[in-house]
C-alpha cells in the first residue's frame, strides 16, 4: 500500500511538473505569436502606405506652399553646418537625422516649442522631411513611421531640387 501511494505521489508530482512546463512553453509561444503579429501589422501598414497610389512624396510646389502653413511641420534633417553652407527651405526647422528619433520621442512639448518655435507634433500631425537629395529624408520618414506618426511625407528632391527651382524660377 505504501509503495502504491508513493508511486502515485511521484506520478502526480511528475505530471504537475510536466504540465507546468507545457503551460509555460505554450505561454511563450503565444507571446511570440502576438509579437510577430504586431510587428507584421506595422510592417504591412508601412508597405500598404508605400504601395498605394499616394507614394508619400512631397513636390516642390507643395513644399513651397508650406512656408505659411503652420499645420504642417517641415523638418530638414541635414546637419547644421550644411544649412550654414547652403541655406534653408523657408518655414523648415532643423532636426539632424541622428537626433530625430530621440527628439520626437523624448523632448517635452515646452522644450520643443522653445527650441524650434513650433508646437511638438502629435502622431497625426502632417510631417514633411527634407535633406540634401532625399536619402536621409527617406530614412527620417521611416523613423517617424516606426514611432507611430501616420501622416509623413518625403521631399525627395531635397535642397538640390529646391535650389534648382528657385534659381530657374
Topology:
Layout: H1 2-51, H2 60-64, E1 73-76, H3 80-86, E2 92-94, H4 97-106, H5 109-116, E3 127-130, H6 135-147, E4 152-154, H7 158-168
Parallel strand pairs: 1-2, 1-3, 3-4
Pfam family, one: Rhodanese
InterPro entries: Rhodanese-like_dom (IPR001763), Rhodanese-like_dom_sf (IPR036873)
Organism: Oryctes borbonicus
Characterize the structure shown.
InterPro entries: Rhodanese-like_dom (IPR001763), Rhodanese-like_dom_sf (IPR036873). Residues 68-167 form the Rhodanese domain. It comes from Oryctes borbonicus. This is Rhodanese domain-containing protein. The chain is of the alpha/beta class. It has a domain at 55-168: Oxidized Rhodanese, domain 1 (3-Layer(aba) Sandwich), CATH 3.40.250.10. Helix content is 62%, strand content 8%. The chain has seven helices and four strands. It has helices spanning 2-51, 60-64, 80-86, 97-106, 109-116, 135-147, 158-168, and strands at 73-76, 92-94, 127-130, 152-154. A four-stranded parallel beta sheet has the order 2-1-3-4, with helices on one face. Helix 4 runs parallel beside helix 6. It is elongated. It starts with a helix and ends with a helix. Residues 42-54 have low confidence and may be disordered.
Amino acid at each position: 500500500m505504501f509503495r502504491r501511494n508513493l508511486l502515485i505521489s511521484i506520478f502526480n508530482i511528475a505530471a504537475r511538473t510536466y504540465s507546468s512546463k507545457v503551460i509555460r512553453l505554450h505561454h511563450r509561444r503565444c507571446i511570440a505569436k502576438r509579437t510577430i503579429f504586431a510587428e507584421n501589422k506595422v510592417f504591412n501598414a508601412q508597405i500598404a502606405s508605400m504601395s498605394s497610389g499616394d507614394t508619400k512624396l512631397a513636390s516642390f510646389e507643395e513644399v513651397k506652399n508650406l512656408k505659411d502653413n503652420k499645420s504642417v511641420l517641415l523638418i530638414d534633417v541635414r546637419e547644421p553646418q550644411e544649412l550654414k553652407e547652403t541655406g534653408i527651405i523657408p518655414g523648415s526647422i532643423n532636426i539632424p537625422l541622428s537626433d530625430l528619433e530621440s527628439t520626437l520621442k523624448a523632448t517635452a512639448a515646452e522644450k520643443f516649442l522653445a527650441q524650434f518655435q513650433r508646437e511638438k507634433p502629435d502622431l497625426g500631425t502632417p510631417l514633411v522631411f527634407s535633406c540634401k537629395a532625399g536619402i536621409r529624408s527617406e530614412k527620417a520618414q521611416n523613423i517617424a513611421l516606426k514611432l507611430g506618426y501616420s501622416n509623413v511625407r518625403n521631399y525627395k528632391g531635397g535642397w538640390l531640387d529646391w535650389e534648382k527651382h528657385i534659381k530657374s524660377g
